[in-house]
Amino acid sequence: MGVPDADLARRHDQLKAAASDALAQIDSLLAKAG
Length: 34
Prior knowledge:
By secondary structure, the chain is an all-alpha fold. It has one helix spanning 5-33. The protein is 85% helix and 0% strand.
């Protein structure tokens, strides 16, 4: 795999950001429902 480490790190950061965004949306939905 000829993917640079910096590229992998950037993709990992994007995945972490997307996951935390999804968790925040779920939390707000649960807060509204509760």
